[in-house]
Amino acid sequence: MDKKIDQIKKEIKCFHMKTYNDLEIFRIKFLGKKKGILTILFKELKEVSIQKRKIYGKIINELKKEVQNKIKIFYSKNEIHNNNEKILKFDPTIPGKSIEIGSRHPLSIIKNKIIDLFMKIGFTYVDGPEIEDDWHNFTALNIPIFHPSRDMQDTFFLCKNPDILLRTHTSSVQIRYMKKHSPPFRVLSIGKVYRNETISSRSNFMFHQAEGFYIDRKVSFSDLKQTIYYLINSLFGEAKIRFRPSYFPFTEPSAEVDIYCDSGWIEIMGCGMIDPQVLKNVNIDSELYSGFAFGLGIERLSLIIYQMKDIRIYFDNDIRFLKQFKSEF
User: According to CATH, what is the number of the domain 106-322?
Assistant: First the structure.
């Protein structure tokens, strides 16, 4: 009996547990109800004399406590809870729990697609403030204080003298960038713009506008047309496109761009060659450099691509609506 107890002591001391599996093997080996070493040892006490039975009984109980204590220490070190059923220790082999994070908003999908398309042809993506001053939003873009084109945009003014406002277009980013950089450059900017318009199925007081511009030596209208063809055909496939003469104070000549759909021709963007006066306003030599600019509304583009009829649905935050969209189209 003494030799057996000494051997058991050594086994308890030398048994190393690293995983939950090891823990179960250890517990069953020593405390198992039928074949546990200490369980069998307790049964063998019947064959020992009454005097030795008390001594050995005490020793076996101490061994049992030692086993239980070793199990508790393992629990503590490995943060095991809930009746031995769960080990919180990180195991990289266990598959992770998937978290439903929802779908991308259709406007974000279109925005990211446009950024990706223009970065492939050398454009740099930049951003700018939504709260602007009059000079960046109007005057530097060849729209002086009494110019009639200001009536084309009903503006949200935050304060007067100086005039601070919510930008009406992302063209203000064009001015800020040109002031700080020297040509040549190709720049794309996308962001929220604000106009005091009646909310309807086709318009909102806020929408997202993408604006791109390219300035270099000998940039021509044909460069602008090829860029527009590249954008539209990348988004719609082989589309029927037309350019219509139009008017913008910051471009000359200017054009509206339409594409042909089942319902007929739909206007999707405006564009033109940057007016020399705009270049002079940001100290760029208009005799040496020329450039083009274009702007389009992301909401209108998305309505066509996803064949939706009401622009207001973008801002309803309805999960059932958002779940329909994938990252690519």
Answer: 3.30.930.10
